[in-house]
Specification:
It contains 15 helices and 12 strands. The chain is of the alpha/beta class and 374 residues long. It has 2 domains: 9-225, Dihydropteroate synthase-like (TIM Barrel, Alpha-Beta Barrel), CATH 3.20.20; 234-355, 2-Layer Sandwich (Sulfite Reductase Hemoprotein, domain 1). Strand 10 (287-291) and strand 11 (295-300) form a beta hairpin. Helix 2 (34-43) packs parallel to helix 3. The longest helix is centred in the middle third of the chain and has 17 residues, at 122-138.
Length: 374
Amino acid sequence: MTTTKTADVEGTLSQIYALAGAGADIVRCTCNEQAAAEGLAQIVPRSPVPIVADIHFHVEMALAALEAGVHGLRLNPGNLRKPEEIKLVASEAKDRGVPIRIGVNAGSLHPDIYERFGGATPEALVESARLELAYFQEVGFEDVKISVKASSVATMIGAYRLASETFDYPLHLGVTEAGPLPGGLLKCTAGIATLLAEGIGDTLRYSLTADPVEEAKAGRQLLEVLGLRERTGLDLISCPSCGRAEVDVITVANEAQKALSALDIPIQVAVMGCVVNGPGEARHADLGIAAGKHRGHLFIRGQIIRVVPEDEMVEALVEEAQKIAKEGIEARLAARDESAEAAAAADRAELLDVKGADANNATQVIERIRRRSE
């Protein structure tokens, strides 16, 4: 959702383009005054993605947003409460073919519902949506999606599970008022990912106290991680390090993350602390590097393609990523240095000789544990 004043057409459009570039497929803008509605009339035709108008208290703003040509409305049942006004908006939206989201929020439940259910419970949230939906159905409006958001992750999960059993409509997921990073990111991910993994949810929003571009990035990355969206950027994996690591894995991984993210290439890259298990453990990665004795072993899909000096590891990753993007993985494998695998094998043997197969001394610890139990 944009954070600009919608009346600021150029500023709002700039943010919409930034959100679309970060992965947002739909953008919501507030429509809380006449100037905002007039701004939407200029924004909608120029937006790269569909625009949803956020309506809270005033039916006039919903009607004005429809006149401005928005692609969707979000109505809050806790704030827009008069049945005749709700049905008027539904009728107007139906005539224009504009969908509406019934956006229930735990913080703005109707007092009667709050009292009847003893608080903002999952049952209360779903009941609010059910009552609102009934008004829409009275005028034959079915182009609806529903959200039942709460700031409590547990309440949110419970509400959406119940909603999925109650309604045969798309569900929009979100943990409302999640807060700033990193806590807000964790809350949103915990709630949204849990439901998506259960097959619940059709659209989503991260509600962060942060630049909204961070919301779009987080949502896109979550969908990519869950395999629900094709990767559009970098996916960097790295080992947690151990006693066998030959480099500062944290530093190298952070440097690689920064350098490779700037390329905007859909690629999975691995940064591994040692050559003993690194290439094998990350053989699924498109590209990776494992640290040896003062050098790095560059590999593609688990196959060593060349050995580079330690201080050139990140540079080598960037160079190879660009070549993969241009030539393809098979071509880069065909161009590998045939002597690289032998050099890697020698480094692995040397490292095992120096540090042993059990670099973290787990075997000794296990023996001590067993002696205690004798």
